[in-house]
Amino acid sequence: MPAARPDPEPPPIHRLLELIKSEPDPAAALGHLEFLVSTRPAFPPPQPLLFHLLRRLATSSPSLLPRLLNLLPRMRHRPRFSESAALVVLSAFSRALMPDAALAAFRDLPSLLGCNPGVRSHNALLDAFVRSRRFSEADAFFASFSHGAFGRRLAPNLQTYNIILRSLCARGDVDRAVSLFGSLRRRGVAPDRVTYSTLMSGLAKHNQLGHAVDLLDEMPNYGVQPDAVCYNALLSGCFKTGDLEKAMRVWELLLKDPGASPNHATYKVMLDGLCKLGRFKQAGEVWNRMVANNHKPDTATYGILIHGLCQCGDADGAARVFSDMVKAGLVLDVAIYNSLIKGFCQVGRVGTAWKFWDSTGCTGIRNITTYNIMMKGLLDSGMVDEVKELLVQLENDASSSPDKVTFGTLIHGLCKNGFANRAFEILEEARSSGKELDAFSYSSMINRFCKDGRTDDAIKVYENMINDGCKPNPHVYNALISGFCQACKISDAVKIYNEMASNGCSPTIITYNTLIDGLCKAEKYQEALSFTREMVGKGFTPDIRTYGSLIRGLCQDKKIDDALAIWNQIPDKGLRADVMMHNILIHGLCSAGKVDEASRLYLEMKGTKNCSPNLVTYNTLMDGFYETGSIDKAASLWTAILDDGLKPDIITYNIRIKGLCSCNRIPEGVLLLDEVLASGIIPTAITWNILVRAVITIEEKLRTQGAGGFHVLDSGFRWREILLVDDLSNQANEYQTQSSNLPPLNLRRCKDSIRNCKPDLLKGLHLAVEPLKYLPDETSEFFIRLRQ
């Protein structure tokens, strides 16, 4: 039997030491050290070599530091380090957000590194707690400074207070931060730039810009020179609150400050803030200054400008900046392309957006956000077929997979384009395959079903949403309440409202307004008022929509005085009634026969209230004047409509035709019908009914006057009717020939039939309107049968 081969000799110590020192990979170097300690336990590795490895691990691989620290006690001759080594370890754990590892190392510093923690080590552990947002532990550890660790009392220094200030500002407790700052000098600690910049940043982020600027002005008085970090904190806060004036003041102070100058971060803050506020001329000036001062813009800086231009609708400007970026040879990241694709989609130029989309495919930097943006752009433009192509690409793209934004965008877009059933299929496919769906996906589907009157389907989606563990938000409940109100299912709407409250979802002003409006339309006025009182009791202030619903409801309930009382409250609440509100009250007054009051309100609109009437205003008031026989006033409104540059619609013509016919001016009414057709407006069933009623009424009046009177009046009326119907027939034939392949109807027989029988005149009018895709309703057919 051959003898066993002896174990190979380990490398010489000097070789292992050289490997530890020269190994570029810190993890591999640590492995060599572990091998050295395990094979040469009596050999003490040089302390400088250990400290060198400690620093390398702290910089690149802090998670490996515990391995090195646990190795030190195994060495027979344990090395001793100064507190500087402790700071390296604790600071590394702090930056890596490893507070538990920092605390463990802090407690074992004497046994691990042979040193006791001083104030700097305490500060490093305190910083680890604050960076990890473990504020309660930070507060408790700070309180322990008075008795100190290891039986030693320590006095906090400036760095300690700076860390505590950062902690207070990070959790939003700026009042305590200000109080602590004010006590520093009494404690014998003079604030430095870090102190000021920390507090200014906290104040600016929490909407106390004035106090922050005061601190900037105070700094020179205490011999503290502001630097770019201080100015950057203020500028960032100013732009966050949209205070351009204050931001420009801080910018000017920075430019005039001989001891400070803008750095690259300053320019980014300025460009980002100005672009978001749409101040591109000023952004251009800042850009030029940046370049002139040798601050070369990088990809992120270009990205800020491109994103800002796209956000404000200047996609072409963004494309020009993109071209400059390409010429500069900078790396084009996916965020740049996403901004450009979104920008061109938002201005409706999907074709250009698609070119940038193709570029992302060629460069291989496309991500799921790119898909989502392009998909939304296509759906917003109604390009559903192209979305199908996009989905095929996504399915074949191994680097991207649909997320909840994808499904939300797709479902919402399909619903918006009228593909509710397909959207529902996608929703169900996503559910069955376990895909993540958010409230937006469900609410889009529910909202579409409710608008289509499919409340049963909406409830099914709502129930599935709850069963899937997705909590409904106010948008979901509001959509359901609105859907039930539109379907006149008020009890179901109230039931959903009660579920909303029981599920811990707070109602919004939209919730209450929708319910109040639905209750008013259902003539449940007392319940509407009850919800209004509840809304006010919960701290909501009624808005214009609330008042509009109540006034409309009271007017429908014939409680005009109560409606006027609410109307008079509107100015006292600091609200301004819009044209819709005026129209609601004008309609209510006219319906109650108070046309003169409605007319005064109309005059107030044009005069003191500076609220321009719209066509609905004129239609409502003109109808009111005709109802009370005020033909001249109604005619003056017709003139006002034309003078205001408004275009009468079929409702306007119907009101005027009805008014003229009711005043026995039927020929003028029929002439208006001719004008309607000449204007390209399609008559409605109401138009037909008005004329049917008018012809029957005038014929009955003529018959009751006797034969002689009938002959004189009828002949004059009849021949005008014959001519008008003949002309109308020709126009109808022409319209039919242009709009369909059907042969034109021969309507000239109307002229002969009118001479013999007035009911045929009605049928002739029927035939004249029929080619315009109009059919009389049951009411008009009833009148024809009645006359026959």
UniProtKB/TrEMBL annotation:
Keyword Calcium among UniProt keywords: no
Start-end of each PPR repeat: 157-191, 192-226, 227-262, 263-297, 298-332, 333-367, 403-437, 438-472, 473-507, 508-542, 543-577, 578-612, 614-648, 649-683
A Pfam family recorded for this sequence: PPR_1
Highest taxon, organism lineage: Eukaryota
Alphabetized UniProt keyword annotations: Repeat, Transit peptide
Keyword Amino-acid biosynthesis attributed: no
InterPro entries registered for this protein in UniProt: PPR_rpt (IPR002885), TPR-like_helical_dom_sf (IPR011990)
GO molecular function terms attached to this record: mRNA binding
Protein's name in the database: Pentacotripeptide-repeat region of PRORP domain-containing protein
